[in-house]
Amino acid sequence: MITTEDLTKQVLAGSPRALARVITWVENSDPRAAKCLEELHPHMGHALILGLTGSPGAGKSSLTDQITHHFRKRDKTVGIVAVDPSSPFTGGALLGDRIRMNRHAGDPGVFIRSMATRGFLGGLAQTTDNVVKAMDASGKDIVIVETVGVGQDEIDIMRIADTICLILAPGYGDIIQSMKAGVMEIADIYVINKSDHAGADQLYTEVNSRILQDTQIKKSPWTPPVVKTVATEKRGIDDLVEAIGSHQCQLKESGAILEKRRERIRQQTFQMIHFALFQLMEKELAQNGRLERLVDAIIERKENPYRAMREIVDEFIHTPAAR
Amino acid sequence: MAKKKIKIIVAKPGLDGHDRGAKLLCRIFAEAGMEVVYTGLRQTPEMIAEAALQEDADVVGLSSLSGVHNYFFPKVVKVLEEKEISDVLIVGGGIIPAEDIPELKKAGVAEIFGPGTRTDKIVQFIQENVAG
């Protein structure tokens, strides 16, 4: 049986096999994953993390493929995390993003991992963040995170990526759609893919008008560019990569990158504590049947959940077992 | 820890361009609760092995309708071995004459499923034979 220490060493030495196994442990919340991540932690924080999000079929995978090709020509190594949805009924998933990236198979500078959301609803899986970190620690220069096809409100990518490209395609609605909150707000770069299709010019105008409104509403050090692409014909890719580069420069020169990462670490650390406590509490309450008794009492109106919550939390933080 | 999910790669090696069956099987495996990575058409053994490695797959399912199974199926097994991946279950299906099956099994393909196989039998075989 391989030790976590050996496996971590292999990840750091660039073994794709070891990286693949660590990712599986992370996905399965295997206790060994935490140990590996602990050991990998000093080596994280070097990769550029690029997020691609947008509706299903907008062209995220095809653009990921093109961007990867571009970076490989410049000798940068690339990790790709491609997320697709799990079935709420069976837990199964069809992960089909690799199909668009086949030309990179066999290139040791590219590591592609497909992930299912496993019931998580923000456009990513719960463990995507740690999978990205493992790829980062393994020495990838760029990690591209491709979200599931999103609607309006799946914006977890903003908790992970340094630069977010929102991939749009013509045919999804009028100008009001582009004015809404949610996913339209989180883009650092707007990409109009399939820009050879009817309606692309109109979409381009609408998105630009949203950006103009944004500049009139609030001051921002970065005005998102709008890039037109046709991923399947390799059109507009240079413009897109240039825009990514400009955003990176802006983040670094303004110091915003440090702020962004600090905020991210704050949120992630707090979330980890939250989750660990939640699991402890859940186990504790389930173990002695207390939760069920409590539920019974609440149904019978002999107890109310508001008071019970206060009592349990109070009790928990004063119990030595919680130490 | 949650029960481990089965991750399966479905691949079409060679130049065979017919993947209605492979696509249907992808759906069936997902319906059975597996996480299915479809790699698409025209895969080389190296591409398939690489996908299995990066995805840390439990199963590789190969489909061939063009008569190239005797070359490609054992080749996939061999490339996986070269990459020191020994814990992956390899299964195959498609238009495969009965007399070819013993050789393919000897080469390391765990089972061959021909036309007319009940899909629940395939799912069952995979569930029972995945390591760990």
Give a quick summary of the entry:
The complex is a heterodimer of chains A (323) and B (132). Chain A contains eleven helices and eight strands.
Question: What would your notes on this structure say?
Answer:
The complex is a heterodimer of chains A (323) and B (132). Chain A is α/β, with parallel strands linked by helices. Chain A folds into three domains: 1-43, no CATH class; 45-254, Rossmann fold (3-Layer(aba) Sandwich), CATH 3.40.50.300; 266-322, no CATH class. In chain A, 47% of the residues lie in helices and 14% in strands. Chain A is built from eleven helices and eight strands. A seven-stranded parallel β-sheet of chain A has the order 4-2-5-1-6-7-8, with helices on both faces. In chain A, helix 1 (4-12) crosses helix 2 (16-27) and helix 2 (16-27) crosses helix 3. Chain B is 41% helix and 18% strand. Chain B is globular, with a radius of gyration of 13 Å. Chain B is α/β, with parallel strands linked by helices and 132 residues long. Chain B has a five-stranded parallel β-sheet with strand order 2-1-3-4-5, sandwiched between helices. Chain B has a single domain, classed as Rossmann fold. The A-B interface holds A 16-17, 20-21, 23-24, 28-31, 86-87, 90-96, 98-99, 102, 105-106, 111-114, 116, 118 and B 1-2, 4-5, 7, 26-27, 29-40, 43-44, 46-47, 50-51, 53-56, 83-85. Strand 3 of chain A pairs parallel with strand 2 of chain B.
Strand order of the largest sheet of chain A: 4-2-5-1-6-7-8
Low-confidence parts of chain B: none
Computed over alpha carbons, the radius of gyration of chain B is 13 Å
Strand content of chain A: 5-15%
Under CATH at level 1, the class of the largest domain in chain A stands as Alpha Beta
The CATH topology label of chain B is: Rossmann fold
Total beta strands of chain A: 8
Number of domains of chain B: 1
Task: Tell me, briefly, the overall form of chain A.
Answer: globular
Q: pLDDT under 50 segments of chain A (min length 5)?
A: none
